[in-house]
Structure formats: C-alpha cells, structure tokens
Amino acid sequence: MAMYSAIVGLITGIVLWTVSGFPILGIKDGLLVIITGVLFVFGAALYFQVMQSEETSKVIFLGQLMPIFTILMSSLFLKEQLSIKQFIGFMLIMTSVFALVTNIKEILSLKFNKAFWLMTISDVLWAAGTIIFKFVSDTSSFIILSAYEGFGWVTGGLILFLVFPSVRQAFISTTRKLSKVGLTIVFGNEAVYLASKLLIFLAIISGPVALVSAVQGTNIMFGIIYGWILTLIAPKIFGEDISKKGLLKKFAWGGSNVYRFSFNLLIQSTFCGNI
Hints:
Shape: globular
Largest sheet: none
Distance between the termini: 37 Å
Oligomer: single chain
C-alpha cells in the first residue's frame, strides 16, 4: 500500500511542479521537504502493516500518540510554548490509548504488543515530518513545497522497493492480481489519504503546529463511527468490536480525546487570538 501512496505522490508532485512553473528549491530546503515525504511514506508502511492485524478504531487510537510527539517536538525545535493545560491534554490522550489498546499487565510490565510499537514509531516519523515541513514553510509557497513533498513520497517508495524484498514482491504480485476495479479503489484511497496530508500541511502553514495536532485528535470519533457502520455492512472484511460493551468503551475513551481537543483549543486561542 505504501508503494501505491508513492505513485500517487509522484503524480501529484509532477502536476504541482508543472503548475508552479518548474521551480528549483535550494539544496537545503529541497532536501528537507523531500525528507518530509520520505518520513510519511515510511510511517504509512508501518501503519498499513498494523492495519492488517488490529481493528481500525484501535489503530486510530494509537495514532493519537502523534500529537504528543508533534507538540513536544514543536516545543523543542520550533519554540512553541508548552503549558500545564497541554500536559493535561497529553495525559488524556495517553489514558485513552492505553485503556483501549492495552491491559493492566502490559502497562505495569511495559511489555506492549508489536502493533503498539510499530504505530508508535509511525507516529514519531509523522510528527518529525510535520515539524520539518513547518520549519521550511516560510521558504516557498505551499504548492511548491507540496510538489517537492510529493517527490519525497516517491523517494521513500523507491527506498522501500529496493531495500526490502518482501515489499517489492508483494507490490508486484498484488499489482498483477488486482482487477482494474481493485486498482481504482486502491489508488482512490491513496489519493484521498494524500489529499488529507496536503490539507494538514496547509493548516500547518496557516497556524501553530500544536493547534493543528489538537484538531486532528477529533478524527477518532469519525473512525469509531465508520468502523461501526462498515462492520454492519461487511462484517467479513471489517472485524470491529461493535458489541454494546465494546462501543461504549470506544466512545468513552474517544470522548476523552475530544476533551483534550477542547483543552488545546483553549490554549491556542491564547496564542492565536480569534479562531
């Protein structure tokens, strides 16, 4: 799946680069933006691997660790302020994540499953890419930066293709076996995914990284609802726990992320003026 993301990134990069008049960024800025794309592809590869073994809603919960890393990195490298209320927000995130995807024994022994660690690494990679993009956001226009970021996606895809034989074999085999309808769905999914990333980057250019991360945290409620509906429609494909107990647990802990969003929104209103 990460390879298909890379292909969509290449197409997007070429289109945006052409529209913007074939600009050439400086070596330093161009390399940093390309690295951003590479990091997002590597993170996506780990994300898709976790999606194969975990419920979608649980993966989205694990993805809520990304705002923690993003805000910490923005405080360290971008000098954005970190407050007591943000710390409370962090604790709400951590509590909701651990409550849903782990158990007491795992927390006490610090022995988490493979999915937890893979998504944590993915979150770190995505957070680092977000910070780098924000760092170079003043050097050029959004379209030009997005074009180079798309080139970063295909660079990351080429690295995965050349370095990891399993990725290369899976991509070739899947491409041969998929029908035209299947390929259309895959590329459509990756196009939506890439579009969401570009919108996130546009938001990052427009305001503090911490605020963007706070708003992203609300996606967990959409994930729970989508998982519920899709499991009802196609239970053989989507294996979500939609029992009353399971849904109550997800909505309860998902709600804590909305509370955390409210905390962060209150914080950012202090720094950003009217929102």
